[in-house]
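Hi, here's the filled form for the chain we discussed.

Project: internal
Contact: R.S.
Residues: 240
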Amino acid sequence: MEKLITVKNVKKSFGEKLIHQGITFSLSKGETIGLLGNSGTGKSVLLRSLIGLEYIDAGEIFYREQRIDNISEEALFKVRTKVSYSFQSGALFDSVSVFENVAYPLFEHTKLKEKEIEARVMEILETVNMSEARDLMPSDLSGGMQKRVGLARSMALNPEVLLYDEPTAGLDPVNVELVLDIMDKFKAQGFSGIFVTHDIPAAKKICDRLLILKDGLIYFEGTVEQFELSSDPFIKSFAG
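And the returned structure, exactly as it came back:
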């Protein structure tokens, strides 16, 4: 299977606090991986490290054949058009509308004409069931709606990989299902993903494989079925 992201022996600490002590895994084309672990195990730190939002202390990170943990900020911008990060909060620009938030990457990184950008933005907003909110401001939106717009913006440049940082955190059950349905649509369209979450049912619904971080290492790596059938007490505590 074609590898899109490869992580080799990544180490990371903040001062004397060791976060990652040799993380190794890969993401194949078309699959979605769930990244699980207790609070403080560095799930989001690892996710941010994949596109240079955090710097690793040692190890290597590759996008396809290109090593990306030691490249310039300019080179990282190109990678970020292919590996897109969906922030936990949605991270929308407060001063512009929903439409302008989603259109921003297209104006910045493409040479599309205005009508082409409008068509692309409306297509994505339709996918996340937010087309009627195009002219609203972020302050007019609920938390769930903001996350859906954030997902839409992460899709604007048609990336290969989507990095989801706790997209269901803090949402009521109805909005959780809406977000998972959107992730399912993206997956059906062939996009690959890494899903950082504490939401085990959501991970089991969306992911092909699950990774569990513990003590700075990957403690478990396997399919949802292997996860559910594991007799390991620590894994069973996650599986509920």
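Let me know if anything looks off before we file it.
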